[in-house]
């Protein structure tokens, strides 16, 4: 990498990232030895979960029936006529940092002697930790993206933090579902 090329990356993912940073001629020719210091265990030879094949209509219908037969609540999935499906997901929040929510405080107006509203809103924020294990159920569609799920969760809790600071991780449970 040239000195003009900098990025932030998880140390295990660094070997998987390739950047085309063109710097001044001759820059980046020297080896600083950091390549040998990086961990090489990146599991690149294992098949990727992203390479899953698309299911046909019959397979989707069968999987929805199997899923609904195992559900202990009324959070079923439904197959629509157009081939899309809808259902509920259970999102368990395990945040390791505080979230910010709006906190409006009324303060006396500068024109306290005049009749009319004597207060004006001041934009403030309050930050706190959500309790670990907080659960929300969201109704989603088959075409719902992860970023839309994050946005919906932040709106439910009126969180004003940047959605890019959050990520979703999948976890499957058999008994607790």
TrEMBL record:
User: Which is an annotated Pfam family here?
Assistant: RA
Q: Identify the GO cellular component terms for this protein.
A: microtubule cytoskeleton; nucleus
Domain FERM: start-end pairs: 124-177
The record ties this protein, via PROSITE patterns, to: FERM_3 (PS50057), RA (PS50200)
* Segments of skewed composition (Basic and acidic residues): 37-50
List GO BP terms, alphabetically. Ras protein signal transduction
Q: Where is the Ras-associating domain?
A: 118-177
Region annotation (Disordered) maps to: 24-50
Q: Extract the InterPro entries matched here.
A: FERM_domain, RA_dom, RASSF1-6
What's this protein's name? RASF1 protein
From which source organism is this entry?
Jacana jacana
Q: What is the lineage of its organism?
A: Eukaryota, Metazoa, Chordata, Craniata, Vertebrata
């Amino acid at each position: 990498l040239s000195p003009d090329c900098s990025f932030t990356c998880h140390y295990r993912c660094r070997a998987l990232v390739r950047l085309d940073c063109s710097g001044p001629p001759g820059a980046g020719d020297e080896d600083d030895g950091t390549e040998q210091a990086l961990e090489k265990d990146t599991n690149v030879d294992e098949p990727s979960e992203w390479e899953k094949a698309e299911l046909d209509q019959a397979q989707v219908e069968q999987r929805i029936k199997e899923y609904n037969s195992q559900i202990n609540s009324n959070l079923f999935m439904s197959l629509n006529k157009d081939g899309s499906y809808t259902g509920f997901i259970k999102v368990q929040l395990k945040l390791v940092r505080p979230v910010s929510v709006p906190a409006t405080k009324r303060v006396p107006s500068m024109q306290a002697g005049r009749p009319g509203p004597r207060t004006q809103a001041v934009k403030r924020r309050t930050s706190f930790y959500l309790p670990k294990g907080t659960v929300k159920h969201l109704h989603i569609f088959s075409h719902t993206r992860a970023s839309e799920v994050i946005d919906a969760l932040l709106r439910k809790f009126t969180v004003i933090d940047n959605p890019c600071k959050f990520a979703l991780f999948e976890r499957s449970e058999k008994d607790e579902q």
